[in-house]
Amino acid sequence: MGSHARPNRIHRTGVRVAMVALVGAALPISAAGLAEAATPGTAHSVDEKGQQGAENTAPAGHTQDAQRQGHPTQATQTRQAVKDHHGTEADQQTHARTDTQAGPGAKANDRANAKTDAQANAQANGKSDHKADKAPAAQDPKDQAAPQIKADHAFLLDARDGSQERPMWGGAKADESVPMASTTKIMTAVVVLKHPEWLNRQIEVKQEYRDYVQKEGASTADLQTGDKLTVKQMLHAMLIPSGSDAARALADNFGSGDTEEARIADFVRQMNDEAQQLGLKGTHFDTFDGISHGNNHSTARDLAKLGQRAMLQPTFAEVVKNKQFKTEAPAANGHTRYYTWNNTNELLGSYDGILGIKTGSGPEDGYCLVFAAKRDNRTLVGAILRDDEGRFDDATKMLDWGFAH
Fold first, then answer.
1. Is the pTM of this model over 0.90?
2. Of 131, 185, 305, 358, which residue is the catalytic one?
3. CB-based contact 227:55 (threshold 8 Å)
4. Less packed terminus of the chain by CB within 10 Å, N or C?
């Protein structure tokens, strides 16, 4: 304001009134900014793109001084961009109002003098009340009859001690079969873990696995041709960065047949057999990773149940709780390969008691999420299909509601 006002051409009373008018006009923007900052941000996460991959190789037996720490996920960058955009917009509005109220010349001063203190305050109060009307206080979860979420394909169950299950709530379309994207990989892991004796068995990365993710545009752990990773490392590569290259490697090595195609087909058959044994009537697989051939679908109820059963496997539960995982493997050139993988589950590190499980997304699938959390000796497992970028916010509301009931 000081840069525009001219002391030799304005009365002290005019200065005081202009300042009141300026503050009154700026208050609603500050209130709106505070209300917006208090509102949980929309989480964005696409687990099919931009994941961390292989580190540079180093001679075996030597410690790499600076391993890559992993870049922020696309979801984190998107949320920061939204935050920056809102902050910039609010600043521009504030500056615009300041320039308008304290414009140079006698005309601006006359307009400022024309407003009384009461008028300025009334204007500020009116705008503040209008903003407040648009952002009512959130209802306590314990007072809600159902979680207040956007997703219709949603289901929540109480796993109690982990070996039982009690349905708690289902959305309007909890039993409608729809595409499930990379949450498919939960069943891939379940089938692999039927052979825990093979966890330390090494699998060599084939060029075909890399060619597959390149052709399909699938998410990848960036496994390098010729590297040898154990089955347990492959499970980390599949479930944390949602690597379809790792999923294909597991299907190729745990299926039976003379060719890769035959072995993968046999593995998918095993997935469907397991779904039948678990009573997942609305579920069918035609792929090991979620890239469907037209017949890969499930329901929110089935996926919540599948997630609960998967968490009974100690190795599965150990893998999916990791926000980031670093490992090393023998490289084809005789050196050591260092890998760093970042989890696509935004709830990890942000929700108290979160245990995992798996994300998924695709053009037809929308945003999917299977999740589990534990508080006060209660474990809740839920699933969301065909949601939007707000899937993590919806999952948070479902869990809050569940623990309150």
1. no
2. 185
3. no
4. N
Please state, for a pLDDT cut of 90, what percent of the chain lies above it: 60
User: pLDDT, tens digit, for every residue of 363-385?
Assistant: 989 999 999 999 988 999 999 99
- Reported as half-sphere exposure (CB side, CA atoms, 13 A), residue 278 has a value of 25
Dihedral sign of CA atoms 113, 115, 121, 125 in order: negative
Question: Which of 182, 219, 292, 298 is flagged as catalytic?
Answer: 182
User: Comparing C-alpha atoms, which of 94, 92, 97, 99 is closest to residue 1?
Assistant: 99
Of 325, 248, 289, nearest to 53 by C-alpha is: 325
Are the CB atoms for 44 and 79 separated by under 8 Å?
yes
Between CA 230 and CA 163 the distance in angstroms is 29
CA distances from 282 to 117, 166, 209, 306, 315 (A): 66, 19, 30, 12, 26
Hunting for tokens 């961390």 — which residue is that?
52
Q: Note if 219 is an active site residue.
A: no
* Residues paired with residue 371 on neighbouring β-strands, in sequence order: 357, 382
Contact 343, 358 (CB under 8 A): no
Which of 76, 34, 85, 32 lies closest to 51 in space, CA to CA?
Answer: 76
Which is the catalytic residue, given 45, 219, 232, 242? 242
Distance in angstroms (rounded) separating the CA atoms of residues 359 and 367: 8
Q: How far is CA 364 from CA 36, 51, 52, 181, 361, in A?
A: 31, 21, 25, 9, 8
The pLDDT tens digits for 128-172 are 444 445 555 667 888 888 899 999 999 999 997 656 679 999 999
Is residue 298 among the annotated active site residues? no
Q: Is 182 a catalytic residue?
A: yes
Contacts with 57 (C-beta within 8 Å, 6 or more apart), sequence order: 331, 333, 335, 336, 337, 338
Of 205, 194, 281, the residue nearest 243 (C-alpha): 205
